[in-house]
């Protein structure tokens, strides 16, 4: 049974994935998911575990945060460098890449830093029990209730991620549906609030600035909620360099395979390039300038435990298809990828 599509992107319905579901019921959903992840790498998930009301509230909190003054948001700043990804990142601080190598590429880093300011700002949240990545929160009196809600939302998102990881394990032929879960604790994940402010459309059309350049994600999987603005595009799996719009689908999760899972599956699963550009529907202000609409999205990046050694899963290796990647530890891979995304802090000598 083939998955339905929305604007060219497959849609998988998880309504029949329950704790009481039979292995056959789960297998049907898992097989659909695996097929899509092998060919496209992107999929909409509907009838998931996160209520529409909770997602709506998350977007409301996100808007309240980004509506704060710049000096207020910088009371919870992203720490210098690429080691810790928490707190507020202002426009231009982060550069994205699509490198999947095992080592840092100095030339790629230089090229990334030359790209015009990326017109977005973000706030990163993780587990309060993850000591290697301590959260950076606003003062409680500045946005009361924000920390409590986002902490709960983070863990509710993780419950959904566990369901997806089980489905992927079954879909690629593993007997143990908890195979990937054994490498994930939930504490190493990252919840990101994203805001793309209005910018003159001509600046994006002429490539003077970019909202989010084409890139792939580092980790296991990424789950995303987006508002109705649009602008997310994924690379056409049939035509390299051509992008198709991932049009908003209300309350659907946009799921994509991360680079680590592609390695883990010996390239069975596909980590696809994606970007954010001009939305198909725009607010046009009067005068000579045409501005894009503000865009809000909420991705949730799922990653394994720090010291987890990632080796190709047994079901994706054979005599005719040997492992293409050497084992790698997640914390080493994460730091390498992070070094290409954020500038290293300046060191001083005395």
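^ structure tokens above, recovered residues below v
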């Amino acid at each position: 049974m083939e998955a339905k599509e929305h604007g060219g992107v497959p849609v998988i319905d998880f309504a029949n994935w329950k704790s009481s579901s039979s292995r056959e019921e789960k297998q049907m959903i898992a097989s659909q998911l695996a097929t899509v992840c092998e060919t496209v790498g992107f999929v909409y998930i509907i009838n998931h575990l996160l209520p529409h009301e909770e997602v709506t509230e998350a977007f409301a909190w996100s808007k309240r945060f980004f509506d704060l003054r710049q000096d207020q948001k910088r009371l919870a700043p992203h720490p210098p460098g690429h080691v810790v990804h928490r707190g507020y990142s202002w426009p231009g601080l982060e550069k994205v890449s699509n490198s999947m190598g095992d080592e840092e590429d100095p030339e790629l880093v230089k090229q990334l830093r030359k790209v015009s300011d990326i017109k977005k700002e973000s706030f990163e949240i993780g587990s309060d029990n993850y000591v290697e990545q301590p959260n950076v929160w606003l003062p409680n009196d500045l946005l009361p209730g924000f920390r409590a809600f986002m902490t709960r939302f983070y863990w509710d998102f993780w419950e959904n991620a566990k369901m997806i990881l089980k489905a992927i394990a079954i879909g690629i032929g593993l007997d143990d549906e908890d195979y990937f879960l054994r490498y994930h604790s939930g504490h190493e994940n990252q919840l990101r609030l994203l805001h793309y402010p209005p910018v003159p459309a001509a600046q994006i059309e002429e490539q003077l600035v970019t909202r989010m350049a084409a890139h792939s994600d580092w980790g296991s999987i990424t789950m995303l909620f987006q508002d109705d603005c649009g602008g997310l595009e994924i690379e056409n799996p049939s035509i390299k360099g051509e992008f198709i719009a991932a049009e908003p689908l209300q309350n659907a999760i946009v799921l994509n395979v991360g680079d680590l899972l592609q390695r883990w599956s010996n390239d069975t699963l596909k980590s696809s390039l994606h970007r954010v550009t001009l939305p198909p529907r725009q607010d046009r202000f009067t005068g000579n300038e045409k501005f894009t609409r503000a865009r809000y999205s909420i991705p949730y990046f799922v990653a394994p435990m720090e010291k987890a050694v990632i080796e190709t899963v047994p079901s994706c290796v054979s005599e005719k298809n040997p492992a293409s990647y050497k084992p790698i530890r997640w914390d080493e891979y994460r730091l390498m990828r992070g070094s290409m995304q954020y500038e290293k802090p300046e060191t001083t000598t005395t």
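The CA atoms of residues 218 and 334 lie 7 Å apart.
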